[in-house]
């Protein structure tokens, strides 16, 4: 976002500078009134000046349009750098990672296929008090607000306090015989889904886990 702000500032300054130059060179009130004799004597030499003013106006319009186009291009869609700038917590020891756009897309696809029926938008349809927002994940025992914490849960899910196994009622690798769609899941799949959940927490924290307010 800092690069976007810098680009926008540069464009605004460029447009302002071009406008000031045009006004300084072509403003009718920038010089004292001329006498008829002065006008008559300046008509021929002044013809190129009128042409120069027209070219200046055309250049101003072209420059303004170019700068506006750059701004729209920059703000119109997220770039790879934006995705890769999002820091994802990996474990409780402070290890972090970043994702590529391909990893985010893959994690989203896996999440929709395996989790979205109950966790659309990061909420939990079966228990709206405990969603996938970072606050709820952090409060679980053990902590689920890291990639490793979520992967561990998808392998061996437990109650929020960590005391009871719930692999029979929550999709998991351990309960693969009950949840066939989990049998084909590999650890990398669990990693990508978990990273996607945390990525959503970083990029749309006000919506992710917001439930019916947003979804």
From TrEMBL:
Q: Which InterPro entries match?
A: Cyt_c-like_dom (IPR009056), Cyt_c-like_dom_sf (IPR036909), Cytochrom_C550 (IPR029490), PsbV_cyt_c550 (IPR017851)
What does the entry give for GO biological process?
photosynthesis
Locate the Cytochrome c domain: which residues? 102-201
User: Quick one: a GO cellular component term?
Assistant: thylakoid membrane
Q: Does the keyword 4Fe-4S apply?
A: no
As given in the record, the signal peptide range reads 1-26
Organism superkingdom: Eukaryota
The UniProt keywords, alphabetically, are: Electron transport, Heme, Iron, Membrane, Metal-binding, Photosynthesis, Photosystem II, Signal, Thylakoid, Transport
Q: Which residues form a coiled coil?
A: none
Q: Which GO terms describe its molecular function?
A: electron transfer activity; heme binding; metal ion binding
Q: What is this protein called?
A: Cytochrome c domain-containing protein
């Amino acid at each position: 976002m800092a690069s976007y702000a810098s680009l926008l500032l540069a464009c605004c300054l460029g447009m302002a500078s071009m406008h000031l130059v045009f006004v300084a060179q072509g403003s009718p009130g920038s010089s004292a009134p001329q006498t008829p004799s002065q006008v008559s004597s300046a008509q021929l030499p002044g013809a190129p000046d009128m042409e120069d003013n027209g070219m200046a106006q055309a250049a101003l319009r072209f420059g303004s349009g170019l700068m506006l186009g750059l701004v729209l291009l920059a703000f119109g869609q997220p770039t790879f750098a934006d995705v890769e700038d999002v820091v994802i917590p990996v474990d409780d020891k402070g290890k972090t990672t970043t994702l590529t756009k391909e990893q985010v897309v893959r994690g989203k696809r896996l999440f929709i296929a395996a989790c979205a029926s109950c966790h659309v938008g990061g909420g939990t349809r079966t228990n709206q008090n405990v969603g996938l927002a970072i606050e709820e994940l952090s409060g679980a025992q053990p902590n689920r607000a890291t990639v490793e914490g979520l992967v561990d849960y998808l392998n061996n899910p437990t109650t929020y306090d960590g005391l009871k196994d719930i692999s029979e009622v929550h999709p998991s690798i351990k309960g693969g015989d009950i949840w066939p769609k989990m049998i084909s899941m590999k650890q990398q799949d669990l990693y990508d889904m978990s990273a996607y959940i945390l990525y959503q927490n970083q990029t749309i924290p006000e919506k992710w886990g917001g439930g019916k307010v947003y979804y």
